[in-house]
Amino acid sequence: MQDPNDSRSDRSERSMGELATEGGSAGRPAGGRSNRGFASMDRERQREIASKGGRAAHRKGTAHQWSADEAREAGRKGGTSVSRDREHMAAIGREGGASAHRRTRPSNGDRQS
Hints:
The chain is mainly alpha-helical. It is 60% helix and 0% strand.
């Protein structure tokens, strides 16, 4: 009777290069990216497929359409969630202040003597 661990030890003794030629981890190609599925398609093809799904949902009557109140509530929740991250909010404030400062004051190279 053969020990089931023998195949594991044989595999662990091979170099990483040999394993990569066998297909990488979890059956993916050695290059690391699969050429299957929605995420591997180009953006235009993804949009085309998603658009068909949206139209089908509307025809079927199962598509969700936001009311003004629902949209307002969702925006409020998102704003509340984002504003909890003080570092993020500080960065936004700094960026806005720098932008406003650039618009109102000429740089050293723009000043006339």
